[in-house]
# Entry
Amino acid sequence: MRKDRYTLTAIFFHWAHVLIVFFLLGWGWYMVDLAKGSAERTFAFGLHKSIGIIALLLWVGRLAWRATHTPPPLYPDGRELARRLVAAIHWLFYLLLLLVPLTGYLSASFTKYQTRFFGIPLPKAGWEDPAINAVFSQIHQGLTWVLVALIVAHVAGAVLSHLRGEPVLGKMLPWK
# Structure
């Protein structure tokens, strides 16, 4: 593996997170309009929660990998401000990829429903309380919109860098 590229494991974590987050975004928007109490809504929320837990587990693995493996250098030509901005965006991604599923789990913990991971019951962090559920649900939705905005900025930055002839995309694409 060249030192100017991410490792294959880092590339896997990145693209797995991309697929999971895009699925969760689309599925989340789909499921909220389903009829309350319907079997379809129960299934949709259960799947959303299970995939969200996978996203959280992926985050743990990704952070552990990142803590033990140095990424390729950003802007080795000395653009310190650009390097700091990109690093801050990456750490903000890590924070949001933790907080979005965590607030979703906390929201679900304050409902009467048992959170399950593909049918396996998980412990609740709370009790039935619609007001607390609503607070965590609003935080979950708000952080999701921040994540969407950050994704748009991230993709735009990668495309703009590529158009300027900088080898940014080549560092994270699975093919060489």
